[in-house]
Amino acid sequence: MAFEGILLGMGNPLLDISAVVDEDFLKKYDIKLNNAILAEDKHLPMYEELSSKSNVEFIAGGATQNSIKVAQWMLQIPGATGYMGCIGKDKFGEEMKKDCTHAGVNVHYYEDEATPTGTCAVCVVGGERSLIANLSAANCYKTEHLKRPENWALVEKAKYYYIAGFFLTVSPESIQLVAEHAAAKNKVFTMNLSAPFICEFFKDAQEKVLPYMDYVFGNETEARTFAKVHGWETENVEEIAVKISQWPKASGTHKRITVITQGADPVVVAEDGKVKLFPVIYLPKEKLVDTNGAGDAFVGGFLSQLVQEKPIEECVRAGCYGSNVIIQSGGSVIGNICRGWVVFDVAAEARSAVVLDSCPCPVVDCMMWSKLKN
Length: 374
What we know:
This protein is of the alpha/beta class. It is 37% helix and 22% strand. The protein contains 15 helices and 14 strands. Helix 4 links the parallel strand 5 (81-88) and strand 6 (106-112). The relative contact order is 0.14. A nine-stranded mixed sheet has the order 6-5-1-9-10-11-12-13-14, sandwiched between helices. It has a five-stranded mixed sheet with strand order 3-8-7-2-4.
């Protein structure tokens, strides 16, 4: 199978400004933990305050971009993945471009000269996080960029597509173009519920593209919000997953599969009206650093096996592995973990590797590296 350009992502590229804060900080800016929202005026002073903290980290992120980088890391085939979104023509945009290119992702950014690169405040308390996105340039993506021959060529070449629900707030027209192309060409189109506010306030845009989704990702909170918005009188995640999978489809080529993560509880997979539960990798609480990027990493790991046409069990296993690595080291690990050093082989039930020198993985208990050392 030819893997070059096989997976394409579109989304909101953001520079994460991540720092550990306290409860007073959360109260000051009216922030709830384990939530993801768009910034309001009351949040704007927070970015400067967060940036001045001694423990601050600046990380090239954004939900879709994170997932694509993890998929690229696990695939270990340069150029296997591509990504489009809008950045500013500034220092942060250049850093973003350099980071993703170094990770092996073929990035085709639209660069807005008038608007700065978007940022996302990542507030971490006791290993839990809250995300407040100030989209800025990410909010300026234009369908015209997608239609340019050099960019549409990425769409034509790809066989799998992933777009986080957050992009519904920016360019639903671009999503629709890619979704319709995927259906017409019998390709695989995947999306994520992404956040409760997407299900609540972008319901119409989400419903319009849902018939084209072959895989729907989300977590238990997002699934329950989706059910509530659509008047389903249940909070049972397994029932909700089945109902989402049975939503009418635009194309009959691929059945829809719903994949819902539940933190430390089993992953719910709904397919053909039935549910399978997959346990996650156990992690003692003392090894948890923070949960930022865990869902993105799960999707990235899952997609790395899906594009290789692996069984659903192996896709979930790879997703759980990606999440497990991320939560032990913080969201920043997405940008640098084991880049170019490790070949992931989930099918063989092993974590084997090709080592060129030494693995720079910052996770002490990284399963793949531990396997090598022993």
